[in-house]
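Please predict the structure of the following assembly.
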Amino acid sequence: MERKEGVKVEDVLGNSSCSVNDFPLQSIFDLSSNEEEKIRSLGFMDLLGVQDLISSPLLEIMAAQQVPSLMATQPPNPFSSTKIESPHEVFNQPATPNSSTISSASSEAVHDEPAKLDDQEEDQRKTKKQCPILKLIWIRNQGFDFHQSVLKLIMKIIFCCFGVCGFRLKPKKTNQKRQREPRFAFMTKSEVDHLEDGYRWRKYGQKAVKNSPFPRSYYRCTTISCNVKKRVERCFSDPSIVVTTYEGQHTHPSPVMPRPNLVGSHLNSAISAASFGMPMQTTPSHYHQHFQQPFTDNLSPLYFGHNGSLNATFLHQKRFCTPGPGPGPSLLKDHGLLQDILPSHMLKEE
DNA sequence: CGATTTTGACCAGCGC
DNA sequence: GCGCTGGTCAAAATCG
């Protein structure tokens, strides 16, 4: 089966408390088959923008691949702006009702009910609130391995940018009442709600979601003094999609096993582990369900081979985002999993 | 028996 | 002020 695979990065601005089902999902990065060549020539890390996070922010790079029509329909979208100056700017675009209003015209790939969406949109215009920016990274792909590994890599990059590398959200204005950590939502096609990410979570609440038959679960990192939270809910329009929203940054390494080697057939699990500071646990059953689900189609232009496994050479060369052969782990002090994706100079700045 | 989940109650923010 | 909703608390239940 030939599928158009792609990575979507959604700029979801506005209501922090709205259901994912209310999100005006809109593709700004949608790879058509004839764009694959372009992507291949970029390299995965290049695509993610981690070769130079300051001058080439992740999302700016991604935005460079966006669908032109979206550029035209969404001038307020920070990703479509040519004035992006830094990741800081990108990620701190204030959420205003205007900027969060996203046309449904190009969102058919995500929403099956445009008419309904118009109503939702109208609702959103009415109810949109000022809130911390929420970046929703939407990995539109049927392959679970692709979802897990790539989205986690992206997540790690984002967390590295804001946490380790010093890019943080601007403090909220004083007139804003409650301060929140930056939040990042990830949409993953999965059959289980709570995706294994290497950290230990304790569920502390569950709420019914308005206009959705699926409840939202609230989890907190079990590590003392780590106040990272996450919300897990299913997408109303597509129940097969799990939306995980992370809030805050872990103040500790992943509590589980050390990193596996990025070798051979373990690549998928390895990158999953490496990508978010999340070494594998002792592979619970649902972990296998996610990470070892057989590939049924070509997954992505993003250096996944035809058999669905990551290109080992690419990984080896791009691992540290430096030209030439990537330095072996012994060349850097162990920064935990961070070293897997960040250039060495960034690590030194920690 | 400690860790985790469940679940109803409570609180805060927001719109009307 | 009131009602609605999202988010959190905490006691009870369940699990390993």
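The radius of gyration of chain A is 19 Å. The longest helix of chain A spans residues 144-164.
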